[in-house]
């Protein structure tokens, strides 16, 4: 069974995500990798790169903050218990730094550069994610 | 100054893209990987749109002699697929599958007022710092 989804907004949103990656490369010559950008701010606070990294993060959170304040953002959320959220968050932070990238850096930018490392990373995290979803949603019945 | 502004604009495009595409909502991520439940193809379309723009945009960028606001392109040079890349990506995939948030969407949803996303993002920063500690401890051992 296939759920309701909106192909147009998914594609247009994807185009905008790509546009963000291209703007950052065209202007600053940098890869758009959120885990690298955020990890750089927390891991190397004195770096001369902190300014552009913070500017990027400010831009990234502005649309969500504005829509949230206007009450126009409706998200279903993950629907998992707080301890699971915290463990998941820790693993995402630790793993994305250890593996040098997440969905944006390896998934969008790395695959576009035809990087072998990114292809291996994406294949790994997609496979582990799918197995995790199967185990938690069907075998353990955690969350929705 | 120019680097800050261009980074902010890149972040804006990326943040709007995550919201428009539906990726700020972990339900869409879990739905994509839940092939034995009600399958939600959104993520595939977002990736397709993002990759198309980034693939073509990067080819244009890299034909130029350099970026507009920086001296050179800063591209990852590594080609080795090592255990650090694969283990890190697997840990990231496990966390991604548990809650459906990866770093970008976690920040966007937290900024939009989702308390669960803020909790996830806090734990994620902790995970990033924890990896940094591991790195520093290793560097110290190598240096000594």
TrEMBL record, chain B:
Record key words, sorted: Membrane, Transmembrane, Transmembrane helix
Membrane-crossing segments per the record: 42-62, 83-101, 107-131
Name assigned to this protein: Transporter
Gene source species: Magnetospirillum moscoviense
The organism's taxonomic lineage, starting at the top: Bacteria, Pseudomonadati, Pseudomonadota, Alphaproteobacteria, Rhodospirillales
